[in-house]
Design goal:
heterodimer, A: 331 residues, mainly alpha, 2 strands, B: 384 residues, alpha+beta, 14% strand
Chain lengths: 331, 384
């Protein structure tokens, strides 16, 4: 087990290393560099004359005149050694300040979405497999198709439209106006919880459709197993044998794809957050891309990816515990 | 699920004198024929194919099917609601469909232009009418539009806040969105076929690099990744440059996944008995690839292409929707949906949301078509 853990941790570090290189490339891609944009932000409209020499000075000050590998090492070194993600120039503060306060909310959204996804997809998928080829089963297949074809952000717009025209209330945001700036309290937490439901449903939409099919397919594979027939022959009650044999196995592919779901959710988060007005990392990522505030964007991309990689790590461990057939050491 | 298209007796008993013509036909059919027969049983997949072909044709000849051009602004027709042609009004019925008249006047209190629908006016729809000049397929100069009205204007899907006809713009957007997806899929396919094919057949460091690349692409959230690449477009780029850059990013992010699939397929096929037999019989690698491997996996690759298409379509829509993808004056489904970004806008003019229906229909069609093709691609497998 310890060998397995060490192997997985090394794998995680290697993946994050390659990801960090790619994130760095993305940060370097936009035309012009940080010094140009910094100077533009700081001095535009103030009447100060900026010359090329001034920008060169700024460049030297930030170490931007160094070659790319050295800048990469500085950047990643700062993150690993000091937990310092750099400066967020459009906010005039450090990246840590900007993203730190949003990580909690992002995690809250991620976990509530995952909970909604599994609460729906696991029981319903199993039900569809047991009642195979029934009307309910076909209805769920149609739903799965729609879950893929109707993008989450469009679903969010539809829900917003319905809630405004039919219920005359807005579902956007994460807090009611009276709690937005209030200090944390039980009421504020409850308020946050009630606002999390809509984003969670919207984000869980396609993940649920996908997992439903996975659960149904695995369940169908296992339901005709000899172990099930044998149990039935022994006179084990139907619901008990279903839970004991196929249902237990149908959970495994779900566990092994948790990181895949997290990836899907984070992928859709920026756009859904824009539509629903959620103040979390995805929305900030979109904003910083539009402002070309690449240190913030890079940091968020790294943080989101790290969460996914870490969840992959956790799900590997969970799967090794749940399913003894999984070989601990892969070749 | 589909039933196998071979007669049930064919599987159970060997061919005998009494065997029907049908069974003989089955045994002597080529693989392509088998695939076609099997595909023909998929009614939903056929429907999907039909819708997609229609969309493609309409997109290709968008200027002819549309009553206006994408940038025509009809004065006095701002945010007109969709007007469906009808045959009857209070004055009686005609065989020729007509539309109610649309006028706009300034509201004396709010000072905003307000659209009035006048059901007593009949604006008859004329077919093959002469309208604004355009170039069909980019080079045939024409003036004929499929339909239009002599006086007033025709807006099947309403107009936007600048008085542009949404029906027209959706048709033009169909072309952009579908073509960007097709180009993106094709570029990533060529990349994937070359690199994945080499990795699958020869292995080595290339194989290792592709494994790492797909791992990264699999682990980083896709749309934020696209956004990061799209954010790098210089603002001074023309819309054509942005268009091609978009196809490139779709392809760049898309190819590793496809390459991995091709590699995996090649690896599994390499161990098949008939491939081993061919190489034992002295066939050269080039002959094995061309005669044995390519025909065996081509159908899978086509299925993969069809399946990866909706991802491209959805990504383009999502990126353009938030303003990081295509930009006006380019018209795509995502660009059109930008107008429907806020609830206020949709509340005021729900018809701005119509492009979303096209996105959903196109993606659904591709998905069912892909499913049908996947079943058909393996005609020897009997699915239950």
């Amino acid at each position: 087990m310890i060998k397995f853990l060490i192997q997985r941790i090394i794998g995680m570090v290697v993946t994050m290393f390659f990801v960090s290189i790619m994130v760095f490339i993305i940060m370097e891609l936009p035309p012009g560099d940080y010094a140009d944009r910094w100077a533009f932000r700081k001095f535009s409209g103030t009447g100060t004359q900026i010359t090329e020499a001034d920008i060169d000075n700024i460049r030297a000050e930030f170490g931007l005149d160094r070659p790319a590998p050295e800048r990469y090492l500085n950047w990643i070194g700062g993150i690993i050694l000091h937990g310092d993600f750099g400066e967020a120039f459009s906010f005039q503060t450090s990246v840590n300040n900007v993203i730190g306060q949003k990580i909690g909310l992002t995690m809250a959204i991620l976990f509530s979405t995952l909970v909604v996804t599994y609460l729906i997809s696991i029981p319903v998928g199993m039900y569809a497999a047991i009642r195979r080829n029934s009307i309910e089963d076909y209805a769920l297949t149609v739903f799965s198709y729609l879950g893929f074809a109707l993008p989450n952000f469009l679903l969010a717009l539809v829900l917003l439209y319905i809630s405004i025209t039919v219920f005359d209330s807005s579902v956007g945001g994460l807090f009611s106006p009276e709690y937005a700036d209030a200090p944390w309290s039980v009421e504020k937490a409850l308020d946050l919880f009630s606002h999390l439901i809509i984003p969670a449903i919207v984000l869980a939409w396609s993940a649920t459709a996908f997992q439903l099919q996975t659960v149904r397919a695995t369940m169908l594979d296992e339901i005709n197993n000899l172990s099930v027939t044998a149990a039935r022959a022994r006179g084990v009650p139907e619901w008990k044998l279903l839970l004991k044999y196929p249902a237990r196995l149908a959970i495994n592919p779900v566990v092994s794809t948790v990181s895949f779901d997290a990836n899907r959710i984070f992928s859709e988060l920026p756009i859904v957050a824009l539509v629903l007005g959620l103040p979390e990392l995805g929305e900030l990522l979109l904003k910083s891309y539009l402002d070309l505030d690449m240190f913030v964007a890079g940091a968020i991309l790294l943080v989101l990816t790290f969460m996914i990689v870490f969840m992959n790590f956790l799900s590997d461990i969970a799967l090794a515990i749940l399913d003894p057939r999984v070989k601990l050491i892969e070749g | 699920m589909t039933t196998s298209n071979l007669p049930s007796t064919a599987l159970q008993t060997p061919i005998s004198q009494t065997e029907s013509e049908e069974a003989l036909r089955y045994y002597s059919a080529t693989q392509l024929q088998l695939i076609l027969w099997r595909f023909r049983k998929h009614h939903i997949a056929k429907l999907g194919a039909f819708i997609l072909i229609t969309l493609a044709l309409v997109g290709l000849f968008a200027e002819f099917f549309a009553p206006y051009t994408g940038t025509t602004r009809i004065s006095g027709a701002v945010l007109v609601s969709p007007q469906m042609p009808r045959f009857c009004n209070d004055d009686g019925c005609t065989l020729r469909p007509f539309l109610p008249g649309v006028t706009s006047e300034r509201n004396p209190e709010t000072l905003r232009m307000e659209v009035k629908i006048d059901p007593t006016i009949r604006r008859e729809i004329k077919f093959f009418i002469q309208g604004e000049p355009y170039k069909l397929l980019g080079f045939i100069e024409m003036q004929t539009h499929l339909f239009g009205v002599d006086e007033g204007s025709v807006h099947l899907f309403g107009t936007d806040s600048l008085g542009r006809d949404i029906f027209t713009r959706i048709l033009l957007a169909t072309r952009t969105s579908l073509s960007i997806g097709i180009l993106g899929v094709l570029i990533s396919f060529v990349l994937a076929l070359i690199i994945g094919g080499m990795a699958g057949y020869f292995g080595g460091w290339l194989d290792y690099v592709i494994q790492r690349l797909t791992e990264i692409v699999r682990v980083v959230p896709v749309i934020p990744l696209y956004m990061g690449l799209a954010a790098a477009f210089p603002t001074e780029w023309s819309s054509t440059q942005v268009y091609f850059a978009m196809t490139l990013i779709l392809a760049v992010v898309g190819w590793p996944t496809l390459a991995r699939r091709i590699r995996g397929k090649l690896l599994s096929l390499r161990g098949e008995d008939y491939v081993v037999a061919a190489s034992l019989a002295g066939a050269r690698p080039s002959r094995i690839i061309a005669r044995h491997l390519l025909p065996a996996f081509m159908s899978y690759i086509i299925v993969d292409l069809v399946i990866s298409f909706p991802y491209m379509l959805l990504s383009e829509t999502a990126l353009s929707f938030v303003g990081l993808g295509l930009r006006p004056p380019t018209i795509s489904w995502g660009v059109l949906l930008q107008d429907a970004q806020t609830v206020r806008a949709i509340e005021q003019a729900p018809w701005l949301f119509i492009p979303a229906a096209f996105v959903v229909i196109a993606v659904l069609s591709f998905t069912v078509l892909g499913d049908g093709l996947r079943d058909a691609a393996d005609p020897y497998q009997i699915s239950g």
